[in-house]
Amino acid sequence: MVDDIKLALLGDNGSSCSYQGRLSGGDGDAGGDGVNTLILCTLAFVSLIVIIAGAVSVVVMIVYYIQVMWSKISACAKNTMEYLRNKQDFEVYKADILRWDTMKREKALKCRECAYRKKYMDEEARP
Hints:
Elements lengths: L1 H9 L7 H6 L8 H79 L4 H11 L2
């Protein structure tokens, strides 16, 4: 009986596909080739789908990281241009402050006895 089960499972030539043929009453290798071909085609199709999905996900990740890097570079370029624009404004502002301080100092030095000079000197003396 054990030998019959082995023959039923392995078949006469040792192939494992003959089990279905013996159960269906065939000669032992009747449906194995068609099933194997169907399984192989299904596996090939699924493998192709997995490869395509992986490639698409890699491309999407690359495009995403390019966008992230570009946004940082673009923001950096925008900030640099804004800095240069503000730097020119700041240079004008510093020149104005220097001119105002010079005028303030001249007025304070002209007025020897007035309260404004004392106030100015006290402000200058404080750190």
